[in-house]
Amino acid sequence: MPTTMSPQKPSRANLIGKTPAQKVCIVLGLALVVVGLIGVTIPGLMGMHLSMLHNMIHLFSGLVALGFGFSSANRAFNYCVIFGTFYALVGMSGFLLGQPGYPSFGNMESDQNLLKIIPGYLEYGTMDHLVHFLIGAFLVFTAFTFRKDKDVNP
């Protein structure tokens, strides 16, 4: 006899039973994908320097976050530690090594902390440094604050 399955709401059902690190990966992954897509049409979104390469990095990072968020708790924990450390270091290096200057792409204003990683293709300004640092700090904070929960859903 056939049985009827009750439909579940995908957004809520996918987050039930997830660890905090997994939830952060999923939400951050969605945000990075959205910013990566919007940045193609609005390269100066929120004062950031979103070149095509920068947007591609956001899309890649977002897709990896989503993959790890829907994967195991240990992978989500590792994403939070590795990518969090990387993002925080990118943010800090911009504040420490950035110099006053004008971006090579777009019609953007000068920036006091412009860091040209690949001139004309990958350049970070003050707002980029701030966002990168905050994302990194939040990821690392999440990973180590909820570390005891990382083995709940292997």
Structure commentary:
The protein has one domain (19-149). The protein is built from five helices and three strands; from the N terminus they run ααααβββα. The chain has helices at residues 10-13, 20-41, 52-69, 73-97, 126-145; strands at 99-101, 111-118, 122-124. The chain has a three-stranded antiparallel beta sheet. A hairpin with a 3-residue loop joins strand 2 (111-118) and strand 3 (122-124). 34% of the residues are buried.
In short:
The protein is mostly helical and 154 residues long. It has helices at 10-13, 20-41, 52-69, 73-97, 126-145, and strands spanning 99-101, 111-118, 122-124.
Question: What keywords describe this structure?
Answer:
154 residues; mainly alpha; elongated
Beta-strand content: 5-15%
Shape: elongated
Number of extended strands: 3
The radius of gyration over CA amounts to 18 Å
Strand-helix topology:
Elements (H helix, E strand, L loop, with lengths): L9 H4 L6 H22 L10 H18 L3 H25 L1 E3 L9 E8 L3 E3 L1 H20 L9
Antiparallel strand pairs: 1-2, 2-3
